UniProtKB/TrEMBL annotation:
It comes from the Bacteria. Keywords: Membrane, Transmembrane, Transmembrane helix. It comes from Weissella minor. The chain crosses the membrane at residues 6-28, 37-56, 62-82, 89-106. This is Branched-chain amino acid transporter AzlD. The lineage of its organism: Bacteria, Bacillati, Bacillota, Bacilli, Lactobacillales. Pfam families: AzlD.
Length: 107
């Protein structure tokens, strides 16, 4: 990639980042009430995205089960169990990751 192409690429990345950061403030000024659909998106999108990430993560294990699939499923269940028990996202992520890494290194 030539220097002008690199400059244009970086400039476009900066422009896209700034646009996504400033656009909500331009579309929804603080003196106006936030539209109901934006509030609904804020409530509905996080669980939907989490569900999509879980499906994406486990799709290969479900389609082509192996011994690694069992390990991934156990680690996922540990993550969910820790989160339901302690309601601590950091603990549940670290616990599930530790279980997964333990089994990967043992087998």
């Amino acid at each position: 990639m030539t220097l002008p192409q690199q400059i244009i690429t970086v400039a476009m990345a900066v422009l896209a980042t700034m646009l996504t950061r400033f656009l909500p403030f331009l579309l929804f000024p603080s003196q106006n009430k936030t539209p109901r659909f934006v509030i609904q998106l804020g409530e509905l999108l996080p669980p939907a995205i989490l569900g999509m990430l879980v499906i994406y993560s486990y799709r290969e294990q479900l389609l082509h089960p192996t011994s690694m699939s069992v390990i991934a499923l156990i680690a996922g269940l540990v993550t969910v169990g820790l989160h339901v028990w302690k309601r601590n996202m950091v603990l549940s992520i670290l616990g599930g990751t530790a279980v997964y890494m333990f089994f990967i290194n043992i087998l």
